[in-house]
Every structure is written in structure tokens, then in C-alpha cells.
Amino acid sequence: MSLQIDTVRAAFGGLVALDDVSLTAEPGAVTALIGPNGAGKTTLFNAISGLITPDRGSIRLGDVELVGKPARHIAKLGVIRSFQELRLFGGVSVYDQTLFAAERRVATRSRKVRGKVDRILARLGLSDVRRDLAVNLSYGQQKAVSIARMLAMEGRVWLLDEQAAGLAPREYDLFCEVVDEARRRGLVIVLIEHNLQLVRELADKVVFLDRGRALATGTVQEVFGNDVVRALYFGRRD
Amino acid sequence: MIDYLTTVGALTGIFAIAAIGLNITTGFAGVFSAAQAVFMGIGAYVTALLAPEVGGSLVVCALAGVALAVVVAFVLASAALRVSEEYFMVASLAFQIIVSTVLISWYSVTKGTDGIPGIPIPTIMGAELSDQAGQTVLIWAVVAVMVGLTAVLRRGSVGRLFYAIREDPIATQTLGRSPIAGKYAAIMLGAAVSALGGVLYAFYTGFVNSATFDYAMSIKLVAIVVVGGIGLAIGPVVGSAVIIAVIPLISLLDLPSTAVGPLQQLVYGLLIIAVVVLRGYLTGGGLRALRRRHRSTLPSSASRIDTERVPT
Amino acid sequence: MHEFVQLAVGGLLVGGIYVMIAIGMSLILDVTGILHIAHGANISLCALTFTAVEPHGFVLAVAATLVVSLAFTMAAYDLLYRPVAKRQADLFPLFLASFGLWIVGSSALTLVFSANATHPPTSLDSTIDVAGLHLVKINLMAFGAAIVCYLLTRTFLRRTMTGSLMRAAACNGEMADVWGMPRRRAERVAFVIAALLSVPAGIFAAYIFGAYPTMGDVPLLIAFATVIIGGVGSITGAAAGALIFGVIQGVALWQLPPAWQEGVVFTVFLLIILIAPRGLAMFGKGRPKRAKPTPQTSSEPPVELVR
């Protein structure tokens, strides 16, 4: 079930953050959004996850229109996201917030759910800090908690907003493994990345955004080789 | 002397129960209510008006008082939750003033500041609880049950939802849960428990009037919750022991009677400030910056560094 | 009907006091995010100080009021909010601290001053008749002062560098940092303006309501209500809301005894947020955008584009 974004436009007080963006993200593939700061990458995630409502355009998961649905319904449909600023529940333990993400409603039967949470925390190397409050963790561990919450939610679409930034090498490798596993399970994965090395390694498809417009779409080679992209994005350093 | 101690003991328990309600709303779910005395007042007035009709049945009065408080809380939440969470407090203060106005001015029912005396002795299962000691035991039994229930609530899925709302409503939504539903639940649940405190208050003192449940009482409940430790299940009991049992000892000082009330308020205020300032020193708090607006420097600076990583 | 109009106009004039308070509150809330509820104690403090010093000379009394207002407000910012904010980035502890300070302030004033309302003597409490309406001169002056305060604040925000940077800080703290405006200065200026505005507010409130230790509480709450109703982030909305509440408060006397006045005002407030949760501004600006919570992420794109 693919995620199709069709001519989505969002403006804030005259500033056009998304200017008729269209793209499709396929299941079992990693789609990377790249582009300079202010290109509208995070705004696109906000639009997909229902935190903002685009002025026009459509966002569909399979046949289901997402535009106009409240954020929590979109999450329940399996479209789940992380935040660049993580938005962890700082005063809540690692275990409790992962468990919260795994619970669909207030009275979930918990034996099975708890086992799943244990496995997720073990996979992400968080078992030792499961009782710690999220605020007391290192930055890399906090990012792992953010991923743990997404794994706990299961879901069909992952929107990853700069989850690899600032990770130590081992954390970085683990992140790549987890994303790769999710891809093999057939999830739609969209990630925002500034680290182009990671994009080369993971992305099946790359979309270059600039000033709210999708200027180039294609494979890594195609987009990185695109003249416009080179001029706008890489050209700054030449 | 013994009488005095039982009275203080009973009142400490009653206020602990009322504050447990506020602790659920404010401490667990992070919705600051400055109108909790209203719910206590609803419990008390329902008892004052209903108890003579039903032979002082505690259970009937408690059920009626709690039910009405929950309904009123639902109405308050419907209005107040429409504005952003930070302003719930303003709406609740406004609500407190509305209800105080009604209690004072609707004389035919509430008897205003004259109040309603002669509330009958409570009965449970047909047995009269005629002595103060018996009532005190009952009150503390309720306290124990409520502390236990909130401790269970805190550790369960409802508690996790409340904490999530308190910490970050937006992340709560993106995890597929409704912050608004959780807030309604926290406000109504808190109102129910506080109303129970009000029912016990009316039975214990045998008298209610409009001056009792004004905003000074709401402030007292806030002080109890803050001093006892926001969000701890046992917190309201500790806070109530300090605020209800210890601070009134001020009246033992040789002061003009008009100065006692304001002086107590002054101490509540100072205690709230002291707890807030001290909490900062105890928790350090630095990393909380991660999730609050205009202070999220860590993630954005980290991403900026990565922007510089450009392929060769 | 004539009585109704009389009450409405009387309320409108008294609304001037709420305007002066509401503008200050609105600025503090926008720039710092703090719900500065302790301001209520400051209004009472201003009114009481003025009334106490007034027998020794009007100018001296105004100067004394100015000094205590600035001292209280800036002490609240520098000695309480800053140290708390330094260690806890949350807004909730700041709010609790303000709540505590409000209680301390009100109860300290109650200990020092008499609980009875004292009116400073004035010859201006007589009425003049305009178009068949009796208008109290001092109330007219309060209204005039409110208009002057509103225009001055608006001009300051629009025309001065500091003002426009404060507006930037209100939209986004980081942007103000980028532009080289230290956040702290924007915050401090917001508090100074609120302190300055509470001087005329307190003085006129002393003449009109009489000075007593908890007199500032209801006007402050009305000011908060107007900030919410008027739409956060707009001093014009706040000022308009304040006048509306003045009128409602006046009209409430039409059929009901005075004891119901406050109850009516706040019932109307709750009804308004029930009907128009986004504030009255949503009626003026055409169809509002869907009422979604706006996370910090959504305020990001415009900022990034500006860069």
C-alpha cells in the first residue's frame, strides 16, 4: 500500500512552505527527502501526519485520503512519525513510554504487549535503561527511544525526521539495520536526511525539495547527478 | 485536647481526599485547575440538601454528590478545553467565581453566607456513625482507598495516557491517542474524588456555607498538592498534613484574628514558590528543554552541524 | 432602554481600565509564554500605594506608584521567573511560581492595608451629560487614558526596532536570537511595559472601584479572559475584548442585583469560548484555518524561508 502525495500546497501568511509537491513512496522501499533547511521537508511530514492541514492537494495511503483526518486517526491508520526534536515524554520512563506507544487504547490486555516491548527495548539496546526517565538519557539513547516508540506502534508507514543525525557510529549502524528490517517487512519508509552518506546507503528513491517544490525525483545516482540539484544543494561548497 | 486532635486528624484526611482529586487532574494529567473547591462544594451542598431526605445515608449522598460533580466537570471541560491547555486555568478561575456568585446569591437554595446547618449524622448500612472518632476512622479508610486507587491508576494504562498528555499532547496524538479524551477523563475523575471529600466534609462539620468553597479553598488545595509533591500518589496526604495540621498552628501566636487568614495564605504562597524553586535545584531539569518551544536548541544545533556534512 | 444604553456606555468607560491591564498581559504572554497572574497583586499594589501617598501630593503619589510597580514586576521577572526558568525549561513551574507570588502578594497586602475600599478624594467623580447620558468624568478620563496607552504601545511595537523585535520574539524565539536581539531583553521590555501600564490602571481603579488589597484580582482575570477571547498575539484584539467585557459588566446590572455582576461576566466568557474557541478574531478574519493545535514544527517553515 503506497503513500501518494498529490499537488500538496501549504502556505503560512504568504510564505509558501509546500508548493504543489507530488511524490509517491512505495512499500518495501526507502524514500529519502533531501534539500536545504526551509525546503519544506518537515512541513510535508506535518501535513502527512495531520498536524497541519494543507491548503489543497491530496495525501492518500492506498485508497484512504489522509487530508482532513485528525492526527490520531492518521496514526491509527498506521502512518507514524518521529520528530526532529524527538518529543519524548521526558518525565516518563523508557519502558512506560514504549508501552504507551504499544497500547492501542486504555484497557489493552497487557501480557503480550509487555513481551513485545521487552523485545523492542532489547533490540535497540535500551534494556539497561528501561526504568530511566527519558530526560536522563544520552542524545543517542533518546533517539533510540523515539525509534522504539515507532516499532511499538508497528504501523505501515514510517516518517523519520533526521533520526540518524548526531548518532555515535554504533548507534548509527543499529539505526540502519532497523530501517533495513522495516523495509524488508514491507513498510513504506520516508526519511528526511542531511547525511548524504546515509542516503546513498539506504535510499531506494530520492526526492530533492527546495523552497517547497520537489525539483528532482529518482534514484540516488539520478538525483545526485542532476544539474539543478548540484547547483542548488552541493554547489554551495564548490 | 483529644477532641482537637481528632478534628485536625479528620480535616487533614478530608482535605487529603479533596486534594487527591486535584492531584489526578493537575499532577497526573497536567491540567491546572483553580476551581477544585467547586467540586468539593458540590459534594458538600448535595449532602447538606439531600442527607435530611435520605436519613443521612452516606452512600446515597456520596453517589449523588459525585454524579453531579462529574456532570459539572464535564460542562466545565467542554468549555475550557476548547482553548489551549495553558488557559484552562483562566477558565477554571472564571468558573470558580461563577459558582461562588451562585452559592452566595441563590439564597433560596444555598442560604448564602448564612449557610445550611444541622446536617444529620451519617449512616452506613443503617448504622449511625455518631461519634467523631468513628467518622475520623471512616475518613482515613477512604483516604487509604483513594491513595491505593491513585497508585494503581498511576501505574496502569490510564496513568500512562495522563502522563503522555502532561508531557506532550502533540506527540500523544501522533502516537494515535486522544489528548482531549484523556483530559476530560482526568478532569471528571478528579472532580469525582474531590466531591467525595466534600461529602465527608459536610457530614463531619454538619454545616456548609458559601464562604467555605471560595477561591481561597481552591488555593489551599493547590498548595496541598504542590507541597506534597505533584503527581505522587501519597503527595496529597503529606501536603494536607502540612497545610491543614501544621500551618493553622499560626493561630496559636498572639495575633489579631483578622491577620490569621491572610498570614496562612502568605505561607501557602511562599511554600508553593519554595517548592517550585527547590524542584529546579533538585532535578537539574536541563534536558527538559528538548521538548519545549523556543528552547529547543539541542536538536536544531545538532541538525545544523549535520548540514555541513556534504559529499565529496 | 435608555437605562440599558446608560449602563452599556458606563461599562465601556470602565472597560478602559481592563484595556490597560490586558495590553500588558498580552505582551508578557506572547513574548515570554508566562501567564503572569501575579500581575493582579501588582494592580492592587499600585492602587493602594497611590491612595496612601495621594494626601502628600498627586505627583509624588504617581511617582511612588511607578516605582513600586516597576520594582514588584521586575523583581518578579529577575528574582523569580528567571532563576526558575534557568533550571526548568517547562512553562508549568513558571506558572506555579507566578500563582504563588500572586497569593503572597495579595495576602501581604491584606496584612498591611485595610480590607475596606478607600477612594482617593476627587472632584472628578461628578457627571457630565452627553446626549442624555450621565458620564462620570473620572471614568471618561480612564477611557481616554486607555486609548492613549493603546496607541502608544502600538506605535512602540510598530515603529521602534525594539518593538518589531519583540513582535518577532512573540512569533518565534529563535528568530529573535538570530536577529541579534537577546531574548532576555525582549522579555524584560515586555515586563516593563506591563508595569508602566499598570500605573494608570491602578490609579484609575483606585478612583473608580476604590483601593483594597484584592481589588486587582477580578480585573486581572477579566484581562486574561480578554486576551484569550481577543486572540492571543494581538494587542488590538486584547483591547477590543477588554472593552466588550466592560460593556457586559455594565449591562449585567440592568436586570440583576450587583452581586451577580462578576458571575455574569465570566459566564459570558465561558459561553464565548464554547462558541468561538479561537477567539473573536475568527469572526473578523474570514474563514479561519482548521483549528489544529499548532506545534512548534508548524511555525518553523516561515522562519526557515526567511533565512
> What structural class should be given to the helix and strand makeup of chain B?
mainly alpha
Average pLDDT of chain C, rounded to a whole number, is: 80
How many alpha or pi helices of chain B? 13
Major sheet attributes of chain C: 2 strands, antiparallel
**Overall radius of gyration of chain B:** 22 Å
What's the number of helices of chain C? 13
Low-confidence stretches of chain B: 284-312
* Mean pLDDT across every amino acid position of chain B: 84
Output the strand order for the largest sheet of chain C: 1-2
Query: How many β-strand stretches of chain C?
Result: 2
State the end-to-end distance of chain B: 85 Å
Count of extended strands of chain B:
2
Query: What ranges of chain C have pLDDT less than 50 throughout 5 or more consecutive residues?
Result: 283-307
The percent range for helix content of chain B is over 70%
C-alpha-based Rg of chain C, rounded: 20 Å
Question: What overall form of chain C do the CA principal axes indicate?
Answer: globular
Write a concise synopsis of the structure shown.
Chain B is mainly α and 312 residues long.
Verbal overview:
- The complex is a heterotrimer of chains A (238), B (312) and C (307).
- With 238 residues, chain A is an alpha/beta fold.
- Chain A has two domains: 3-78 and 155-234, 3-Layer(aba) Sandwich (Rossmann fold), CATH 3.40.50.300; 90-154, no CATH class.
- Helix content of chain A is 37%, strand content 25%.
- Chain A has nine helices and ten strands.
- In chain A, the strands form two sheets. A six-stranded mixed beta sheet of chain A has the order 6-7-8-3-9-10, with helices on both faces.
- The longest helix of chain A is centred in the last third of the chain and has 16 residues, at 169-184.
- Chain A is globular.
- Chain B is built from 13 helices and two strands; from the N terminus they run H-H-H-H-H-E-E-H-H-H-H-H-H-H-H.
- In chain B, helix 1 packs antiparallel against helix 9.
- Chain B is globular.
- Chain C has 307 residues and is mostly helical.
- Helix content of chain C is 72%, strand content 3%.
- Chain C is built from 13 helices and two strands; from the N terminus they run ααααββααααααααα.
- In chain C, a hairpin with a 2-residue loop joins strand 1 and strand 2.
- In chain C, helix 9 (217-229) packs parallel to helix 11 (261-275).
- Classes of the chains: A alpha/beta (238), B mainly alpha (312), C mainly alpha (307).
- Chains in contact: A-B, A-C, B-C.
- At the B-C interface, helix 3, helix 4, helix 8, helix 10 and helix 12 of B face helix 3, helix 4, helix 9 and helix 11 of C.
